[in-house]
Prior knowledge:
The chain is an alpha/beta fold. It has helices at residues 42-48, 50-53, 74-84, 96-105, 114-127, 142-151, 158-168, 210-231, 240-260, 267-276, 286-311; strands spanning 11-18, 24-29, 35-40, 63-65.
Amino acid sequence: MYDEDQSPPNANRHPRYWFEDGSVIVQASDKQERATAFKLHNGLLRRHSGYFSGLHLERSSGVVTISSNLGVQLEDFISLLEHLYHDSPLSSKATFPHVAAVLRVSSPSQLDFPSIHDLARGYLEAMFPSSPLPFVHPNRHLEEALALAAQYRITSIEKGLYYSLVTTTEFESDAVVTEATEDVGSDCAVGQDGDIGHPHPSTVRHVLPSADVEKCRRLMTGLVDHFTPILFTPPTTPHMPCTDVFADKWMPLVVQYAISCNGIHTPLETLERIKQIDWAAGGLCPACVKEKKEEWTQEQVEVWERVDGWLATPSNVK
Length: 318
């Protein structure tokens, strides 16, 4: 047996997570099967992890080698240690890659840190919208987040992720794309008057599985078929003068904008922008302004509720 104060043969000692007062040596490998050794605290691991507590670790037991069958990535294990040892604890400011790494490695199928897994799950949910009011697109990691949501059954964010994929990405592309450098056109950018722009795509976009591409296609069709007649029909009101205002201004203020900024297939954002237009300045009475804003908000809710049906496979649609 090797000296317990030395790293195991054929393994590099980790520069940070090798504690002189550690009581167990853990070895993990990267994708190239290069091993890294960590000298950690047995009690800390056993207290939090079903995997480590089940090993009955002792100081004299040698090295614990994390089995490759578990699918643990070395980088994920380091992220877990960063949380455990408070170097980079999970928080609302944690990055997506850090949260995703901890979520994976702490899962029951890997190292089984239940409380940490629940914590990572909560922070992942908080990163992505789960309601339409207002809907704010995350601009990165959509595909990775959708895969995690499916794997760990985080259903609360799946709908929003599909909506963002359909409305902000080329989801049918087979190529990995890089982040765009050009700015969003000024006519479609977020402005002080409430204009809703579109975010830049992810730095690296992974290819979606074919089943998810099919769901996105169905969602795209449903959004366009549902919203097109609403968008191209000026609203009516109980007051003829207010109805005339819509008849006069709906095309230049709403339809032309939607056509130029892809608003036909982004109903949540388009409806939000319509609500932000100063209709009172255009001649609409206060009562009609209030009524129509409530109707447009309700339409956002209806679109959101219909997304489930559009995503469902035909055999599951009642």
